[in-house]
Amino acid sequence: MTETRVERKERTRRAILDAALQLCDGSSLVALSLRQVAREVGIVPTAFYRHFDSIEALGLELVDESFASLRSMLRDVRSGSQPSFSEVVDRSVGTLVEHVERRGRHFAFIVRERAAGPPAVRAAIRHQIELAQHELATDLARLPGTEAWSPEDLRVLSALIVGAMVGTAEQIVQADGRPDAVQQVAETARTQLRMVLIGALQWRSTPPA
Amino acid sequence: MTETRVERKERTRRAILDAALQLCDGSSLVALSLRQVAREVGIVPTAFYRHFDSIEALGLELVDESFASLRSMLRDVRSGSQPSFSEVVDRSVGTLVEHVERRGRHFAFIVRERAAGPPAVRAAIRHQIELAQHELATDLARLPGTEAWSPEDLRVLSALIVGAMVGTAEQIVQADGRPDAVQQVAETARTQLRMVLIGALQWRSTPPA
DNA sequence: CTAGTGGGTGAACGTCTGTACACTCAAACC
DNA sequence: GGTTTGAGTGTACAGACGTTCACCCACTAG
């Protein structure tokens, strides 16, 4: 009871973020109204402005939250230090599945708004995905077998992998908790990653162009 | 002047579809109002109902149109019969780039509404993409080197490729006509396809699991 | 030539939207 | 312990929304 004032504000703020996340499930941020959110939270519409300037600003906040959890995911994968390839594949896919299931609403949000959100939200998401690709590229550069790769080839490969992972996250969200469906998506992702890595390991043996 | 009645109706119908395609650029179908469309076309809101039951029904029509052009694209690629691999890669990517640039609005529409459209529209798009994956899988089965593959592996591979192509289409749409950006996306896509195919050709040499 | 079909009109409805403004009243501060 | 602060309230407005209804009147069919 020491800091009741800021605590209550934070609680309402969280309630607004959660309500927004829930309400725009099945449509999009651009179709979400300030009044719907306020009604769901149980406050009057004008009180919304005490926390956010607009729905779009709320969206940018949700992007940050979502990618905070994604970053923690990637950090987990990286922390698996010594990679046999089949081990790094299993760990990566497993961690992805776990996080997407745990924070399903956030990942569903990103997958949707990446293509359909307000322009500023789209730009923020694109930027975060580019960051993730860049981080993956620097990690790939440390793996044995990639010493001779050009930075451009590393970028292209990590774009391919990140793209496949985004697609996987999308399908996990669509599977919506059905464990067998999630299981099959995970298996598909594992196989895809193996195919890609096999191709990558052989890459320099056939010169580009 | 023989069939003026149905011609005029068809012309208005096209104008509605085009206006909808243009207006939901930058947001989404779920944020598009019947009145906006009518205003843009130059008809009164109620006249909209002479052509479509709802915005959602209009969306389903747009899905059909978009995938009609995608199918023609895939047919073009297939018609390149005898494949050296580097040739099939170049043809595929070139055809994709050409079609996406030609029908940019339709592809932007699909990329957006696939994740954010009304549920029925989303389902229709997902279904069409699954069809495309299936057709690609049967084509892959005809290539030399895949004789021993399981149907499941074929499905996984074609899902990977179609996913990468959807991602490529997305980036071309984002490049929005800047020729150098489009060029780079195309080059990235070519490299990615080569990496995937190299991996695929070596696939059976390392058993799964 | 006459009857009827059907794309488009225009006014009206109830509902929802974002935002402005003046307000309360408990917690925080000095 | 009196003053300030700020999250939440309540009312109000103008505009946009989907949908209804009765109404045109150019074209078509017979």
Describe the structure in brief.
The structure is a homodimer of 209-residue chains. Chain A has eight helices and no strands. Chain A is mainly α.
Folded structure, characterized:
Two copies of one chain form a homodimer. The termini of chain A are far apart. The first copy, chain A, has a single domain, classed as Tetracycline Repressor, domain 2 (Orthogonal Bundle), CATH 1.10.357. The model of chain A has no long low-confidence stretch (mean pLDDT 90). By secondary structure, chain A is mostly helical. Chain A contains eight helices and no strands. Helix content of chain A is 73%, strand content 0%. The longest helix of chain A is centred in the C-terminal third of the chain and has 25 residues. The interface between A and B is large, with 40 and 40 residues. Chain B binds a DNA duplex (30 and 30 nucleotides) through α1 and α2.
